[in-house]
Amino acid sequence: MEDISKTMQEMMSKRHLNRNYRQLMDQAFADPEVTAFIQANQADLAEDVLARSASKIYEFVTERDKVRQGGQTFATGYEPRLIVANHLLDVAYVPTAATMEKQAQQQLQRRVRAIAMPKDIRNAELDNFDNDNDRMEALMAATEFIDNYENSPHHRHQALYLSGSFGVGKTYLLAAVANQLAADGFSSTLVHFPSFAVEMKNAIAKNGVGDKLDAIKKAPILMIDDIGADAMSAWVRDDVLGVILEYRMQEELPTFFSSNFSMAQLENEHLRISTRGDDEPLKAQRLMQRIRFLAREIVMVGVNRRPQ
Ligand code: ADP
Ligand code: MG
Question: What pLDDT score was predicted for residue 209?
């Protein structure tokens, strides 16, 4: 390795640089990260690397210190790294740990498509799901589904119909399953069914029903949240819900449900009676057959977890 002092002297006089510069460069050359990098890569570096890479060394040290002090480099979210290029030093900009974490998070969020769902479902995690006795069965069924699905995503897997009163954590558990699947690389769609039904009604005027319905119908994993929470018109029941379920049954696509109603209640107190007041037990029965094919019922009990 050349003598730094001598190199500096030569460089400074050649470039008409002043003492201030010298001080800055002395610091940069003495930087532990810089010296360690040069030492580790000595075999690949030119003899006169210090003189020829001085500006890169300076850039590296100043940009790195900016990041350390919480400032921003000229490329936000990136930090400098020394690399060897053509036997000299160069500076590459790589995403910071925080940026990588954010990118990974965004990737995950893209795998969970949420329609009219509360924002806090993003934070739902199986690890944080209270597994008291009341919720154990639901949690075990959920993790079993994930294991089975991930082992053979293209085969039929019966999903879950979570029933139970308001606030026991049905939506939370569905979201936690979706987030776990996302972490493992699988996409799912969660839809708050009553809001979706309204959206579909509004889409009629704009001729948008087909596209919206298609996206839901074909989602690799679908979670229909809060089915039965609002009265359904015959149109929503037969031409929206019925169409979705028919398709998913035929294609054997995993479909979860959550409801304040048990399956029996959903059939007899909800699906049978249209908003017009007609009693249609056969239609209700057909829909329930599809739901039962797609999901098995798990009753969740427990205290209302909603902040009062
Ligand atoms: P449900 O869909 O059954 O009405 P939610 O899933 O919306 O109930 O849960 C109600 C509230 O309690 C939400 O704020 C949710 O984040 C929280 N919650 C539910 N289950 C849990 C849990 N096991 N651990 C932590 N928070 C929970
Ligand atoms: Mg809910």
Answer: 83
Residue with tokens 């990588």, as numbered in its chain? 100
Q: Name the burial class of residue 105, with classes exposed (0-12), middle (13-18) and buried (19+) by CB atoms within 10 angstroms of its CB.
A: exposed
**Concatenated DSSP letters of 182-249:** HHTT--EEEEEHHHHHHHHHHHHHTT-HHHHHHHHHT-SSEEEETTTSS---HHIIIIIIHHHHHHHH
**For 18-42, how does the pLDDT look when each residue is reduced to its tens digit (9 = 90+)?**
777 778 888 899 999 999 999 999 9
Domain assignments of the chain as residue spans, ordered by start: 4-95, 104-300
Mutate which of 135, 172, 227 for ligand 1 pocket (most atoms within 8 A of beta carbon)? 172
**What angle in degrees, to the nearest 10, is found between the helix axes of 54-68 and 19-30?**
70
- Residue 38: CA count within 13 A, CB half-sphere: 24
Ligand 1 near 168 CB (within 6 A): yes
**Architecture in CATH for domain 104-300:** 3-Layer(aba) Sandwich (3.40)
**Is the dihedral angle over the CA atoms 50, 51, 54, 56 positive or is it negative?**
negative
- Hey, is 106 helix, strand or coil? helix
Give this prediction's pTM: 0.75
pLDDT band at 184 (very low <50, low <70, confident <90, very high): very high
Pairing of strands 159-163, 255-259: parallel
Ligand 1 atom nearest to 129, measured from its CA:
23
- 3-state class (DSSP) for residue 71: coil
Judged against a pLDDT cut of 70, whether residue 181 lies above it is answered with: yes
Pocket of ligand 1 contains residue 169 by CB under 6 Å: yes
Task: Return the H-helix or E-strand segment holding 159.
Answer: strand 159-163
Give the residue from 264, 240, 255, 239 showing the smallest Cα distance to 290: 255
Q: Rounded distance, CA 164 to CA 43, Å?
A: 68
